[in-house]
Task: inverse folding
């Protein structure tokens, strides 16, 4: 089980309380698809993903980005049991969708960049450390079925 400090818990709660889920989710997923184009292979039914403008303007990318961000709410509400919280989602991504587990880290990196840009000077090194720890724990929970 992961140990969370009071600062880490408060920081994660604060970040998500200020989150514009639709915008941040869309921008994080779009950034991931642009920067790491091989991740597009999982979104073949999303239509035009041929360039950055098409990806940014794609309503299916926007919708799925929001779904991903809202999915992180489950971890925020269950920080003491993230592994169990994502057990079903882990099986879905590993066994049905066959998602490369490294993609969770890539998306987490893109999400960190988007959140940092939104929080500006409030995204201090301590805040980043707490946020990245949270995302690493979620990513590990999603990857557990791959082992």
Result:
């Amino acid at each position: 089980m992961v140990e969370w400090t009071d600062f880490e818990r408060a920081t994660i709660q604060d970040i998500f309380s200020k989150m514009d889920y639709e915008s941040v989710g869309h921008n994080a997923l779009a950034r991931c698809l642009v920067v790491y184009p091989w991740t597009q292979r999982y979104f073949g039914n999303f239509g035009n993903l041929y360039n950055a403008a098409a990806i940014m303007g794609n309503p299916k990318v926007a919708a799925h980005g929001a779904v991903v961000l809202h999915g992180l709410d489950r971890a925020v509400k269950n920080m003491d049991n993230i592994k169990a919280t994502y057990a079903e989602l882990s099986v879905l991504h590993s066994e049905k969708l066959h998602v490369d587990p490294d993609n969770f880290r890539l998306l987490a990196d893109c999400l960190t960049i988007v959140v940092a840009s939104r929080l500006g000077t409030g995204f201090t090194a301590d805040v980043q450390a707490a946020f990245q720890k949270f995302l690493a724990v979620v990513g590990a929970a999603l990857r557990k079925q791959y082992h």
Observations:
- The first helix runs from residue 6 to 17.
- The domain at 6-143 is CATH 1.10.490.10 (Globin-like).
